[in-house]
Amino acid sequence: MSAARWRRAMNAGPTGAPARPPFPSSGSSASTGAPGRPQVAPASEPDPYADSDAPRWLKFLWRTLSPRHWLVAAFVVLLPFVASPFMLYQVAAQSLVFGLIALSLTFLAGYGGMVSLAQMTVAGIAGYAVAVLGTSGTATSLGWPWWVVVPCALIIAVTCSTLIGWLSVRTDGIYTIMITLAIGVAFYYLVLQNYTVFNGFQGFQKVYPPEVLGLNWREPRPFYFLTLACALAGYLFIKWLVRTPFGIALQGTRDNARRMGSLGFDVTAHRVAAYAVSGLLAGTGGVLLVWYNGLITPGSVGTGWLINVLVIAVLGGMKHPIGAFLGAIVFILLQTFAIDLIDRERFNLVIGGVFLAIVLFSPDGLLGLWAKLRSRFGPNQVVTSTTRRQP
Fold first, then answer.
1. Distance (Å, whole) CA 89 – CA 294
2. DSSP, res 294
3. Which CATH number is 264's domain given?
């Protein structure tokens, strides 16, 4: 069944009359007028490329990026020229790396309805592939060139993520979480006890990024721009993907898998493909993470980090891709500066308290809290109240 036929079928009510879409696009908010009154769509800025022959990517950017996006883009581009090397490398670059890994979970959970605790495992698989196939301070590394190692690491990560999805998509809810958690724990003990390939608990040291075009990518400013480019590419890719027929069908399987199956869609195939996409994002983050740390050990894929990726995604909010990076910034700031106020051993207590507060007061994360504040104190609330008092 084509995407157009599916949209007509989903938008048709029981009597053939058009009905409300079953799942609005992420980030949109439906109007809440009085019952029985026609809903008026908010006015939007005209699209100058609607009837033009402009490239599709230019139309996509115009429809996707708002003025606040350009303000944020200007800020992140100018940040390396005003921030200290510590803030640039330890905070900004690390937040982008973990935000990219959390984005893979946000895509699975927010658009596919599948919560996976194996995303850090997929990132660790890519990191270990870079260490094993590339160059490190360990004699067991094969010493391949980086332009061969990186594609191979991403292919391995996507393949493993696809296999994880193939095993877990046939379950729902807590069973999916337990399966992915079991896979993550199994991989942790595999790299911990295997010395032939993974070098046991010592892992791999001195896994540094290559020098390309005379630039040392381990320096704060080049590495920041590298992570920024990867994070921006991942964000725009997800924003584009969720608007394609595949992304719309994936959201349909999230809302009503049985109905999508009756319409002729292969629900299992769509979910497994979503795991493959998340594996590409997590694998890219894993490559950047091993270059950032300069090493990889079993502690990098331990149970604690499996949970931390989930915490990052929930903190920011799973209903929009930018929530992964927002949650990563909050997490890294707390991780970096909380030790100045409390003991290092009590960091998990602080993260747990912040996580509990977010879940209690805003289940949609910081983005949901911001949306609540705008709806309560913004000008739209006043207009809505005035409109409802009219006869």
1. 13
2. S
3. 1.10.3470
pLDDT of residue 297: 95
Residue 215 located in a structural domain: yes
Q: What is the dihedral of CA 299, 304, 306, 312, to 10 degrees?
A: -120
Q: Which domain holds residue 194?
A: 83-378
Contacts of 226 (CB under 8 A, 6+ apart): 209, 217, 288
Task: Give the Cα separation of 247 and 112 in Å (integer).
Answer: 9
Among 157, 112, 97, residue whose Cα is nearest residue 324? 97
Q: Please state the domain count of the chain.
A: 1
The pLDDT value recorded for residue 379 is 55
- 57: pLDDT confidence band, cut at 50, 70 and 90? low
Strands 204-205 and 211-212, bridge-based pairing: unpaired
Instruction: Say if 23 falls within a structural domain.
Output: no
Give the three-class secondary structure for 243: coil
pLDDT tens across 215-236, in order? 888 899 999 999 999 999 999 9
The structure tokens listed for 108 are 């699975």
Find, among 79, 72, 74, 107, the residue nearest to 93 by Cα: 79
Residue 218 to residue 329: CA distance in whole angstroms: 21
Q: Are 293 and 134 in contact (CB under 8 A)?
A: no
Tell me which residue has tokens 């696809």. 162
Q: Is 264 helix (H, G, I), strand (E, B) or coil?
A: coil
Q: b/e map of 75-90 (b: 16 or more CB within 10 Å)?
A: ebeeebeebeeebbbb
Cross-strand bridge partners of residue 204? 296
pTM above 0.85, yes or no: no
150, 134 contact by CB (below 8 A): no
> Is residue 284 predicted with pLDDT exceeding 70?
yes
pLDDT of residue 377: 76
Predicted confidence band of residue 125 (pLDDT cuts 50, 70, 90): very high
For residue 290, what pLDDT band results from cuts at 50, 70 and 90? very high
In a domain, 87, yes or no: yes
Answer for the pair 354, 316: CB distance below 8 angstroms, yes or no: no
